[in-house]
UniProtKB/TrEMBL annotation:
PANTHER family: UNCHARACTERIZED PROTEIN YGJP, UTP PYROPHOSPHATASE
A Pfam family it matches: YgjP-like
Gene3D superfamilies: Metalloproteases ('zincins'), catalytic domain (3.30.2010.10)
Sample GO molecular function, one term: metallopeptidase activity
Organism: Ferroacidibacillus organovorans
Entry keyword set: Hydrolase, Metalloprotease, Protease
Biological processes annotated in GO: proteolysis
YgjP-like metallopeptidase domain span: 16-221
The protein, known as: Zinc metalloprotease
Organism domain of life: Bacteria
Amino acid sequence: MELEFAYSIQRSVKRRKLTITVERDRSVVVHAPVGCSDEQIEKVVTAKRQWIYEKIGHPQKYQDLPHAPGKELVSGESALYLGRQYRIEIVNSGFKEIRFEQRFLIPDSPLDKRAEALRNWYIQRAKEKIVPRVLQHARQLGVNVSKVKIADNRYRWGSCTMNDNVNFNWRLIKAPMFVIDYVIVHELAHLLEANHTPSFWNIVRAQAPTMDKAKNWLKENGQILEQSI
């Protein structure tokens, strides 16, 4: 049977079973063990096609923005941080790194250097604020986390591995804390329940009672987090 969607394959020597994910941009990715042939993968994908169609059509998957935002890192614009927009000021005061004083004070430099500086600032804040929250929620859930990593997974907010490592997209630092907490709990709950069963969602809701609000926020604002400002 001919499929109406394309999919990519990522093989890993550490992977023991085949899984399929539909990313937020509607791309379909098959994660497979090294020894899994293309024919075996195609058979599984075909068998799961109805589930994949449903995921591709899910309302939380991205729609293209109707117009490019057109924002630049210049004085008078604003940038997101923890769910709020803060004014940007380009300054010539001699310091080399971004300062945050209820507004972004960004050293004057070429636009690409300003974007790089803001990205680095976000990543550092994500390490400072997200990692401790992960450890706190892990203690409350009674799960052991081997390593917490702030990553650059553009189409995934968080992920966990078979080795009990958890990864979180640095762009989450732009979202409100209740959204960050929901994503953290979502990934940690997978250490207790691998699949999205009713039991899994009960765990998440108990630890993150604003789960529905957070999911709606990501649905409405998720694509904005991926913009540079």
